[in-house]
Amino acid sequence: MRLTGINVHPLKSGAIRPVRSIEVGPAGLRGDRTWMVVDGEGSLVSAREAHGLFHVVPDTPDTDPAVGRALRLRAPGLPDLHLDRPAGEPEPVRLFSLDLGAVPAGAHADEWVRAALGRDDVRLVWCDDPTRRTLQPGFSRPGDHATFPDSFPVTVASQASMRRLGDWILETALEHGEQAPEPLPIERFRANLVVDGDEPFAEDRWTSLIVGGVPFRVTKPVGRCVMTTIDAGSLTTAKEPIRTLARHRRVDGKTLFAMHLVPDGSGTLTVGDEVDVS
Q1: What does the pLDDT read at residue 265?
Q2: According to the model, what pLDDT value does residue 253 have?
Q3: How many other β-carbons are positioned within 10 Å of the β-carbon of residue 39?
Q4: How, if at all, do strands 254-263 and 214-223 pair?
Q5: What confidence score (pLDDT) does residue 167 get?
Q6: What residues have CB less than 8 Å from 13, skipping those under 6 apart?
Q7: How far apart are CA 75 and CA 69, in angstroms?
Q8: Pairing of the two strands 35-38 and 123-126
């Protein structure tokens, strides 16, 4: 099995940034989900409620060597925003039910994000210390930590499973008398790692992976939400893939696709790396 794709998301819910190679450590891929938009109360604002985040393009020196500072944000109709890592003390923020800390990016960054999203109540924050965040009990070990992903540092998705899901979506459409849909891209699931070469949904049985010599623990499947129904280009929503996942991949009230991982080492991942699974 091979690693066929690597995706970094410097801004949580921002545009996906594919890379050829990236360093990985205990907190995940370097620079992944280290910046986040919050509302006036300090709670996460994601593309679920602010679809326009998908059109905010975040880059770091890892995703674009031309970026000379910690972060560059681009959005239609706005000048590029260039930021250094902010100084100062962390302030309380909330990621779903988790109370965390993050450093405010500052008034200039807030003004830019508000213009990009058309909201006057949002702010940009940065994760200065991922070790402050512990992970879900029962699926993690002491010392496991992360920046601002939903649950665990890394997610992996299978191209074989995506092809099988595409077949199911086509069957569902034809059963409902609908026009045959265009295949959905695997990017709908915003996985950090994309692999190919195993059977569809073989990942349900994985307990660990070694990718490019870096070991990962498989913790649990990823429960999918309505964000997967948003087209990142048009920002329109539809029934798929949740409609079909709920039919074929519903377990304990959750629709499942892809797996959560925790790195058990550090190293460099490169597209084409061999993937060994247990």
Answers
A1: 97
A2: 93
A3: 16
A4: antiparallel
A5: 98
A6: 37, 45, 46, 47, 48, 50, 53, 54, 227
A7: 17
A8: antiparallel
Q: Do residues 65 and 20 lie in contact, with contact meaning Cβ atoms separated by under 8 Å? A: no
Residues 111-150 have pLDDT tens digits of 999 999 999 999 999 999 999 999 999 999 999 999 999 9
**Token pair for 247:** 């039919």
Give the three-state DSSP class for 100: strand
The Cα 7–Cα 140 span in angstroms is 23
- Could you give the CA distance from residue 271 to residue 126 in angstroms, rounded to a whole number? 28
Task: Respond yes or no on whether the N-terminal peptide bond of residue 58 is cis (omega within 30° of 0).
Answer: no
Contact between residue 260 and residue 219 where contact means Cβ atoms under 8 Å apart: yes
Give per-residue pLDDT as tens, 179-220: 999 999 999 999 999 999 999 999 999 999 999 999 999 999
d(CA 43, CA 51): 16
- Give the CB-side neighbour count of residue 244, counting CA atoms within 13 A: 22
Tell me the two tokens of residue 248: 């074929």
pLDDT value, residue 223 = 98
In the structure encoding, which two tokens stand for residue 81, read together? Answer: 């925003």
> Which residue segments constitute the domains of the chain, with CATH numbers given?
2-277 (2.40.33.20)
Residue 66 has what pLDDT? 97
What stretches of the chain show up as alpha helix (H) in DSSP?
A: 107-117, 159-175, 242-248
Contacts of 186 (CB under 8 A, 6+ apart): 5, 157, 159, 162, 194
Give the pairing type, strands 154-158 and 193-196.
parallel
Cα–Cα distances (Å) from 216 to 19, 180, 208, in that order, read 19, 38, 6
User: Of the candidates 177, 185, 199, 190, which has an alpha carbon nearest to the alpha carbon of residue 260?
Assistant: 190
10-46: pLDDT as tens digits = 999 999 999 999 999 999 999 999 999 999 999 999 9
